[in-house]
Amino acid sequence: MANFGPKDIKKLREMTDAGMMDCKQALAATDGDMEKAQEWLRKKGLGAAAKKADKVAAEGVIAIKSNGNKAIMVEINSQTDFVAKNEKFQSFVNEVVEHVLNNDFDTVEDIAASEINGEPFSDYLALQIATIGENLVVRRYAKVVTDGSIGSYVHANSKVGVLVASDAEGVEEQLKNIAMHAAAMRPTYINEAAVPADVIEKEKEIAREQLIKEGKPEAILEKILPGKINRFMQDNTLENQKFVMDDKVSVAKYLASENKDAKLTEYVRFELGEGIEKVEEDFAAEVAKQMA
Questions:
Q1: Which of 30, 12, 29 is nearest to 20 (CA)?
Q2: Following DSSP, what letter does each residue of 108-158 receive, concatenated?
Q3: Residues with Cβ < 8 Å from 29, sequence gap 6 or more?
Q4: Of 154 and 282, which is predicted with more confidence?
Q5: Which end of the chain has fewer surrounding CB within 10 Å, N or C?
Q6: Which residues neighbour 167 within 8 Å (Cβ) at sequence distance 6 or greater?
Q7: pTM, two decimal places
Q8: Is residue 1 a part of any domain in this protein?
Q9: pLDDT at 154 exceeding the cut of 80
Q10: How far apart, in whole angstroms, are the C-alpha atoms of residue 113 and residue 98?
Q11: Residues of 186-210 as b/e, b for ≥16 C-beta within 10 angstroms?
Q12: How confident is residue 47, by pLDDT bands cut at 50, 70 and 90?
């Protein structure tokens, strides 16, 4: 006779969020021992997670959280946008973001090697994958710590996030506006000093080829090129872009209008799924593969 009943199944389901039949099987396999049943489900969850690990996760959210002079931004991916809007996924994201903010991690690898709620992060993640039913990836992480001010912005669809910092105090509102600007205008670099030398040389090479095709004499190319590079800097560096809320001033001048000594010191922009190659597969072929 089984040493458990419907109430035990219900309790285990509430504790683990696993399926009803899985909970029944776990209790049957462990003679009704609740703790061993949880372990049984976890092992099952790890197996389910392994099967999902090769699934491309390019949807999800960008999440930001701050506390005083520290702010963190994390990209957490799921396989589908539908799951990204799921309450369980959102709860998972909130728990991870809180964990990251409250610890001093430097890289996403540090997060993966940590413990959360008293268990290895890898085990915790595997159980979330089994519960939610899709591959989940904590893909990217950025941290900003400053003695000055921090501004942040996450777009309404949670697919774009920006962190910016200044060495000046009291400019949080201006930095939030700059973060919104960066979300929309997509600058690649914070300022001219951050642009690698090889990128500048490549831009010069491209500009030179364009000018030659336009029929510009060789003798004046070197006089025109600086203007082309200045335009590149204006388009691609945050400080030099025209501020989207007032295009009569640059972003740097907008910030200085509040505090003449204020300068941007950090800038990070995440766009959900950028750089991930999404695999498109024919639906009929996918069904055939499952039936093979």
A1: 12
A2: HHHHHTSEETTEEHHHHHHHHHHHH-S--EEEEEEEEE-SSEEEEEE-TTS
A3: 37, 40
A4: 154
A5: N
A6: 146, 147, 148, 262, 263, 265
A7: 0.77
A8: no
A9: yes
A10: 16
A11: ebebbbbeebeeeeeeebbeebbee
A12: very low
Taking only the tens place, the pLDDT of each residue in 160-198 is 999 999 999 999 999 999 999 999 999 999 999 999 999
Question: How large is the greatest C-alpha to C-alpha distance in the chain, in angstroms?
Answer: 96
Q: Mark whether 70 and 19 lie in a shared domain.
A: no
Mean pLDDT score across all residues of the chain: 87
Q: Which of 62-76, 84-98, 258-272, 273-287 has the lowest mean pLDDT?
A: 273-287
| DSSP H or E segment with residue 283 | helix 283-291
Q: Alpha-carbon distance 232 to 203, whole Å?
A: 8
Place of tokens 């090479």: 205
Query: What is the domain range of residue 27?
Result: 6-52
Same domain, 46 and 63: no
Kindly report which listed range (10-19, 49-58, 143-152) carries the lowest average pLDDT score.
49-58
Tell me the C-alpha to C-alpha distance, in Å, between residue 6 and each of 11, 14, 20, 78, 134: 9, 12, 10, 33, 28
Residue type, 188: T
Which of the pair, 216 or 149, is modelled with greater confidence?
A: 149
The three-state secondary structure class of 285 is helix
Please name the residue that has the structure tokens 């539908």. Answer: 82
- How far, in Å, CA of 286 to CA of 292, rounded? 10
When comparing pLDDT for 54 and 82, which is higher? 82
Q: How many domains does the chain have?
A: 3
81 in a domain, yes or no? yes
For residue 63, count other CB atoms closer than 10 A to its CB. 20
Residues 39 and 73 in one domain: no
Residue 186 lies in a domain: no
Distance separating alpha carbons of residues 2 and 26, to the nearest angstrom: 12
Same domain? 34 vs 93: no
